[in-house]
Amino acid sequence: NSSFKFEGSGFIPGSVAFGVIGTNSVWPSIPLPGAPNCFINTNIDVTLGIVTGVGNVRSASPNGHAEVPIAIPSTPVLIGYFLSCQIAAFDLGIGTSLPLITSNALRATIY
Q1: How far apart are the C-alpha atoms of 32 and 39, rounded to whole Å?
Q2: Out of 6, 37, 98, 99, which residue is the most buried by the measure of CB atoms under 10 Å away?
Q3: CA pair distance 81, 111, nearest whole angstrom
């Protein structure tokens, strides 16, 4: 699937963000130091820099949409392969020592 992507919304529009892609299906949720109530929910195999857009494309009033595209080739060897993704964006208005907000991790297994 060349158009597969992980998506997140609710971030500050135009914020600098990054998507983290992992392959460890048993990764524990780890508190992110300096960012209260934020957790690292996936291991870090790949990191992609992104910028949050004008919003969630499925919402009537979009707000801070982000996409992490991952082209998945059509090959039987990938069947059963696990991927997870988490998006983090900077938000200077939250007043924490690490001004970062994170999504939950999204998990997918290729079939």
Answers
A1: 5
A2: 6
A3: 8
The 3-state DSSP class for residue 78 equals helix
Tokens for 64, please give them: 């801070």
Looking at residue 79, its pLDDT comes to 94
User: Residues 3-41, buried b or exposed e (16+ Cβ, 10 A)?
Assistant: eeebbbbbbbeebebbbbbbeeeebeeeebeebeebebb
pTM of the model: 0.86
Predicted confidence (pLDDT) at residue 56 exceeds the cutoff of 80:
no
**Pair 107, 81: CB distance under 8 Å:** no
Partnered with residue 107 across adjacent β-strands are 84
Structural tokens at position 24:
């460890």
pLDDT on residue 60: 58
Alpha-carbon distance of 87 to 52, in angstroms, equals 10
